[in-house]
Amino acid sequence: MRPWQAGGLESLGSMASVIQPSFALGELSQDLSGRVDLEWYGKGLELCDNFYVLASGGVTLRPGTEFVCEVPAEAASSTAGGASVSEPGARSEGASECISARMVASDERTKDGAGRKTRLIPFVFNAAEAYALLFTDKAMRVIRDGGLVTGEDGEPFVLALPYVESALADLRGAQSADVLYVVHPDYPPAKIMRYGHADWRYEALTFRSRLEPPAGVSASTSAGPTDKSRVTYSYKVTAYDGETGEESEASAAVSVVSKNLGLEDTVITVGWQPVPGAKEYKIYKESAGMYGLAGYSAGTEFLDRNYEGDYSVSPPVYENPFQGEGNYPSVATFVQQRLCFAGTRNNPQKIWMSRSGNYENFGRSNPTRDDDAVYLSICSSQVNWIRGMVTLRSLVALTGGSEWTISSGGGTSGGALTPASVNVAQQSAYGTAGLEPIIVGQSILLAQRGFTAVRDLAYSYDVDGYVGNDLTIRASHLLRGRAFTAWAYQNAPHGILWCARDDGVLLALTYVKEHQVFAWSRHHTDGAVEDLCVVNSDSRDELYMVARRTVGGRVRRYVERLAEPYRSDDMPMSRAWYADCGLRLDVGDGEPVSRLSGLAHLAGREVAVLVDGGPLDGLRVDEDGVLELPRPASVALVGLPYVGTVKSMRLNTGDQSGTGQGRRQTITRLTLRFRDSVGGEVGWERPGTDGGTLETQWTEIKGRTLQMANRPAEPFTGDRTQTPPLGWDSGGQFLLRQRDPLPMTLLCAIPDVTMGG
Fold it and tell me: Is residue 110 over pLDDT 80?
C-alpha cells in the first residue's frame, strides 16, 4: 500500500487509518497535486517553510542564526600584529547585573546605517584552521569560530584590497594550502596569503619565478683557440630549488671562444654570483641555436669537460598571458598539480594551465616538455563564456551553453595532461548560470542557465561520460522567475545545499544521493539573505550568511552563522538556538542577571527570548540595545523570531470506486510522531464565513508543556494525537507550525480518515 493511500473504504462515511511515513521529497509543486499515480506522491509536502528534510525522511525546524558582526561600511587600512579571535557573547569585565554581548563598533557603519554589499569566501587550511573571508569595498576581514579575527590592538584585522563593491559578486578564488588565488575579469589575477590568524597579505601575480636569475655570469677556458681549433661555446645559468621545483629564468647568455673541448684536456669554467634562496644551479649549453641541460652545480662554478647537453630540457620561459584589460581570467581551479585559469573577456572559451607543480609559471619550453604550461580553447558553434571549472575524474568546464571535459587522450579520465596530450569533449548542453559549481561526493551541482533548474552531473560508466538529473523538477515553483545570488553545500550535519534567492528567501535542498533524497524547502527570515559560504570545521560544516535587515528604521547588513540543531542527548534545552540574528548570554557560575546590554544590532525590535530553556513573549530591545528580563537568567538567547510551517499534501485515500481525490475527505483524528520537540500547533483549514476562502483554525498540540515561566521546556519524543474541530472538512490536509524558539522534528503523520461523497 502506498503512503497516503488506504484500502477498505467500501462505503460512504467509512473510516480508515493511513500513514505518511516520510517527507523525503520536501515541498512539491502544485503542478503535481494530481499525480497520485506516482509512487512518491505520498512523500511530499504542499508547504515546507523554515523546516528542512532529514536524510531519514523526517522534517525538522531550521536552527536560528548567530550574530557575528555588522558588515563594515568602507575600506580601512591594513593592520598587522599578533592574532586573537573574539568569542561570541563575550562577557564584560566585572559584569554582574549587566552582560554586554559582542558587537561591531559604531564607526564601522555607513552614515545612514546601511552596510555595503559584501562577499563571503571560505578559506580552509585544515579542520582546525578554517575561516570565512569577508570582502567589502576595497577591504577584507577574517572570521573564525563565529567571531572577527582581531590584532594585538583588539581591533578587527583589515586587509586593503583593490576590489570595489560592485566587483565583489564576480570575485572567484582557488585555494592551495595558505594561498588563495583570486580572479576577476576586470582585475589582474592576484593571491591572498595567510601567515597567521591576523596576518594576511595581498600580492598581484607577476608570473615569474621568486628566484632571481643569476647575475655576473662569466666563462673562461683553460686553452685558448688556435687557428685550427676555434669553437664558440655559449651558456645560460638558472637558479633552482629542488625542494619546491622552483627554477628562475635563465641568465643572459655568456660565450667564450676556446679550443675544442674534445681535444686534449680543455676545460671551460662558468661562474656566477650566488642567488638568495637557490639550493643549486642548472647550466644550459648551446648547440645549433638551442640550449640544453648540461649539468648541475651546488656552488657558483661549473666546469665543462665536454659535457653533452640534453636538448629535450631547455631553460624555462615565463609568460604572462593575462596582461592588459580584457585578458584577466574570471575562473580558477586546480587540476593535476596545475593552476588553471579560464574565461577572459577577449578569450571567453580559452583555458590556461600552469606548468606542473609551478602554479605561477605559464611558460613553455622549446622543444615542448610534458610539464610545460597547457593552452587550449573550446571550439564550438557558439561562443559561450566559461563560467565554472571543477575537477573530478577530469577537468570539467561549464559554459553558458554546454558542459565539457578536458582530459588526456580520448576519455574522461586517465593519464596526465600535457601540451601534446589533451582532449576536449562535450558532455551535455544544459548550460550553466553564473554560480560556481559545487562538488558533492562524485557529483557536480550546477545551476542551469537562466536559473531554470538545478542539476547534478556525475560520471556514468554506461555512457562513458557525465550525465545528471534535474533536481528541481518536483519543486519548479521555487525557482520560477527567480535566480540565485549565492549557494553553498553543508555536508554535516545533514547534507543540505543552501541557496540564496534574489528576493532574499533562503532555499534548502536536502541532497543525499546515496539514499535518493532530493528534497526542497523554503526558509524565511525577518529580512533577506544575500550571500552564503560554508566553512568546514572539526565538528560540523559552518554556514555563514549575509543578511539584510531593517533595524531602527535603517537597513543594515549582518554576517550571521547558522546555529547547531538541537540534540537532546548532548545538549540542554537552554542551549537550543531557534531565533535569528541572536546572541546568547551565559553567566556560567556567576549570579543570574535581568538586564542584557550589547544588543544594538536588535535595537527597537521585538525579540524571541529563551530564558534558561523557557520562552518569553512580548519583549523588546530598547533603542540603546538593552533588554530588561522579567526575571534573572543564567542562560538567555535573544534574537528575531521566525515561524516554521508545514502543510501536508491532499490525501489519496481510495475505495472500490477508485481514488478519493475530488471527494470530501475528513481527518477525524491525527497522530503525529515527534522527536526532541516542544510545543507547536496543528492547523485545520475550513471554509470561511463567505463559504469560499479557507481559514485556518489552530489548536495547541496536546501534552504541550510551555506554561513554564520558571522552569525549562522538556523535549518530547513519541506520538501526539489531535482531534480536529467539529465540522472540519477539507481535502484531507493538515498544517503544523512552531512559533516559539524551541525545537521540533516531525517523523511521520498518521491520520484517521472518513471519506464522503
Answer: no
Which DSSP letter does residue 730 get?
B
Length of the chain: 757
Residue pLDDT, tens place only, 149-171: 999 888 999 999 999 999 999 99
Residue scoring higher pLDDT (31 or 403): 403
Q: What is the structure's pLDDT at 198?
A: 94
Which one is predicted more confidently, 369 or 648?
Answer: 648
- Distance between CA 731 and CA 665 in Å, rounded? 5
Distance CA 426, CA 404 (A): 4
CA–CA separation, 42 vs 525, rounded Å?
Answer: 29
Residue 632: what are its φ and ψ, rounded to 5°?
-60, 150
Confidence band, pLDDT 50/70/90 cuts, at residue 93: very low
Measured CA to CA in angstroms, residue 402 lies from 300, 345, 452 at distances of 54, 18, 15
Q: Is this structure's pTM higher than 0.90?
A: no
SS3 assignment, position 106 = helix
Q: Can you spell out the DSSP letters for 496-563?
A: EEEEEETTS-EEEEEEEGGGTEEEEEEE--SSEEEEEEEEE-SSSEEEEEEEEEEETTEEEEEEEEEP
What are the cell numbers at 630?
A: 522579567
Single-letter residue type at 521: S
Of 557, 581, 601, which Cα lies nearest the Cα of 117?
Answer: 557
CB-based contacts of 447: which residues, under 8 Å, 6+ apart? 432, 433, 435, 453, 454, 484, 487
Count of CB atoms situated within 10 Å of the CB of 313? 16
Report pLDDT digits (tens) over 253-301: 999 999 888 777 889 999 999 999 999 999 999 998 899 999 999 999 9
Domain spans, the chain? 15-62+643-755, 218-304, 377-548
Angstrom distance (rounded) from CA 135 to CA 300: 46
Do 430 and 415 touch, CB atoms closer than 8 A? no
Q: Is there a contact between 138 and 75 (Cβ–Cβ < 8 Å)?
A: yes
**Would residue 306 be called left, alpha or beta, if left means φ above 0 and alpha means ψ between -120 and 50 degrees?**
left
Q: Which residues contact 691 (CB under 8 A, 6 or more apart)?
A: none
The burial class, CB within 10 Å (0-12 / 13-18 / 19+), for 371 is buried
User: Each residue of 548-564: pLDDT tens digit?
Assistant: 999 988 899 999 999 99
507 near 521, Cβ under 8 Å? yes
Q: Is 27 helix (H, G, I), strand (E, B) or coil?
A: strand
What number of other Cβ atoms are within 10 A of residue 62's Cβ?
24
pLDDT over 80 at 103, yes or no: no
Among candidate residues 179, 171, 175, the one with its CA nearest the CA of residue 139: 171
Rounded to an integer, the average pLDDT of 580-608 is: 92
Alpha carbons 509 and 499: distance in angstroms, whole number: 8
The average confidence (pLDDT) of the chain is 85
The CATH number given to 15-62+643-755 is: 2.60.120
